[in-house]
Amino acid sequence: MSETNSIISPENIVYKKSPVLLDNTMHYCPGCSHGTVHKLIAEVIEEMGVQDITIGVAPVGCSVLAYNYIDVDWQEAAHGRAPALATGIKRLLPEKVVFSYQGDGDLAAIGTAETIHACNRGENIVMVFINNGIYGMTGGQMAPTTLPGMKAATCPQGRDVSHDGMPIKISDLLAQLPGTCYVTRQAVHTPANVRKTKKALRKAFENQLANKGTSLVEVVATCNSGWKMNPVQSNEWMEENMFPMYPLGDLKDE
Amino acid sequence: MAKAKGAIVVDTAACKGCGVCVTACPTKVIELAAEVNGKGYHYAYMANPESCIGCSNCGIVCPDTCITVYRAKAVATA
Amino acid sequence: MRELKLMKGNEAIAEAAIRCGVDGYFGYPITPQSEVMETLMDRAPWDSTGMVVLQAESEIASINMVYGGAGCGKRVMTSSSSPGISLMQEGLTYLAGAELPCVVVNVVRGGPGLGTIQPAQSDYFQSVKGGGHGDYKLITLAPASVQEMADFVELAFDLAFKYRNPAMILSDGVIGQMMEKVELGEFKPRWTNEYIEKNYPWVTMGKNGRERNIITSVQLEPSVQEAFNHKLQNKYRECEENEVRYEEYMCDDAEYLFVAYGSSARICQKSVEIAREKGIKVGLLRPITLWPFPTKQIAHYADKVKGMLSVEMSAGQMVEDVRLSVCGKVPVDHFGRFGGAVHSPGEVVEALENKLIKA
């Protein structure tokens, strides 16, 4: 144990919390992917030195209080309207860095029009999209991205595609639009995936500084409370069930 | 006995005991404690400190960023 | 001598916005107000003042782009007509809840539903009683001329920033479409970011060394939400105390009173003249601010006149506020054509005679 104690000294630190991440305890459930993605955004903002010029736009959903965790200026949007807010901010302050943070219900259901048109105009912003296939905040109802057969509070027998349609693969759709410069789908359940997601976020923010248009980073995520599994089981379930529908990788990189 | 190359410090009060770090650790250093913290969570701790290689995997996957990772400088391994 | 121009009301809104240094306009076409954005696009102010003009995908997007810009302390506005304003109600309550200043122009047309593209004043309730959910108020200005369409843009921004609250210019298809002589204001420079940050420390422009700012309307803790609502109500009381605006026409010796705003007030001016030729002593009180409403001034006339007629191009909306103002002291009735129809001055006088004098 004395060996360990001798290693624990400031000059040996190889991983610690980014100062851009605030000390507030996150309200998310244990194991929730939101926390990991928040952390990565904070690390990218810190490493790029853009904390003082960044404005985040928070959604409605579990991450409605995202502004409590990342130490930048924030605006909280109505459900689905984050891309419209981000458009207003970026058009009026083109020299600032603007990102939206949205879940699947926010980005791919109620805010579909705002999402598609912001991307189609090529708004020079970063959109971070958390896809866990469920409405977590309201208690686990069916999302636009809920898998066929997957059970949720408003499809307790499982999603019946003859009744509710297939899940929407919105990133594939957005990659078709000329306004997007970078559309990628990542995950944060393993150290390797976390590193890839961070690289994707970094690229997205760099695209904005280079005025390249809209960058969308989808993160296929877990909602262990909504899925009614423990966090480790959720990660396994995600690999087996979510990834076949939402395969990871770049959909567009120009 | 293996010589520890790394170490972690868990903010046990902030830890929610999700166990993601336990799975991510390649050398099985981390376990969830039998006792609970103030929130009632079985927090993560270094059960096998001598195996830690300071790879940061646990810190990287931790959703609540409550793990700080240390690694001894290369000279210490001589 | 200021510049004189013959303009449509909608064009005057656009011209005034450019001249008073507005930073951004976000809109979506709808009759009878599309000339606002058309004029702005034609004038291309991004080349002169740097003003941003963007056609959004919907009124929902427009009002939320306004929210984003307003949160940065920029002077941003949108315009629409009744069905489009209905779509903006979500955004308006969020703007009020986040205490964001902005200007929204409603060139009202007849409803309900898709209704008609002809003028009406049937969005009074929506404008002054809430419209969206929650306890909030919109500062509501009612122009009665093309000149006021121009002048009220800057006034609305001044009030919006003074009270950190959205302000609405409640016009109608008559004022929006008609042409009149307008005396235009001087060109004023847009606010610099430095000016905004110094005078409005709540804005989100990047934290730049200070504590971060958060623009939000969510307070999950009821006691915090209640305290915030008290703060809003105090602000509204202050606004009611200081910002009531109205105009009186031939009220000194009046035995009857027309209460009318916007184009109905213009019509009533003529009705006053016709009535007086017939020997009926009638005056006109024109509320310029519909919220805050000139309650006290109307109450003052309750002791002097024999009756009041609220004249509106609606089935009777403002009449409720007139009645509340007089507390039953005198008879109050309503007259107005609606659904896109506009009353004539003669019809108004006839209504006065039938509803209040002969009755």
Report what the structure shows.
Chain B: Keywords: 4Fe-4S, Iron, Iron-sulfur, Metal-binding. Chain B: This is 4Fe-4S binding protein. Chain B: It comes from Carboxylicivirga linearis. The complex is a heterotrimer of chains A (about 250), B (about 80) and C (about 350). Chain A is α/β, with parallel strands linked by helices and about 250 residues long. Chain A has one domain (about 25-135, about 170-255): Thiamin diphosphate (ThDP)-binding fold, Pyr/PP domains (Rossmann fold). Helices cover about 40% and strands about 20% of the residues of chain A. Chain A has 10 helices and 10 strands. A 7-stranded mixed beta sheet of chain A has the order 3-2-4-5-9-8-10, with helices on both faces. In chain A, strands 6-7 form a two-stranded antiparallel ribbon. In chain A, strand 8, helix 8 and strand 9 (about 215-220) form a beta-alpha-beta unit. In chain A, helix 2 crosses helix 8 (about 190-210) and helix 4 packs across helix 5 (about 110-120). With about 80 residues, chain B is of the alpha+beta class. With about 350 residues, chain C is of the alpha/beta class. Chain C folds into 2 domains: about 5-195, Thiamin diphosphate (ThDP)-binding fold, Pyr/PP domains (Rossmann fold), CATH 3.40.50; about 245-355, Rossmann fold. Helix content of chain C is about 40%, strand content about 20%. Chain C has 14 helices and 15 strands. In chain C, helix 7 (about 145-165) links the parallel strand 6 and strand 7. Chain C is globular and about 70 Å long. The mean pLDDT of chain C is about 95. The interface between A and B is large, with 40 and 38 residues.
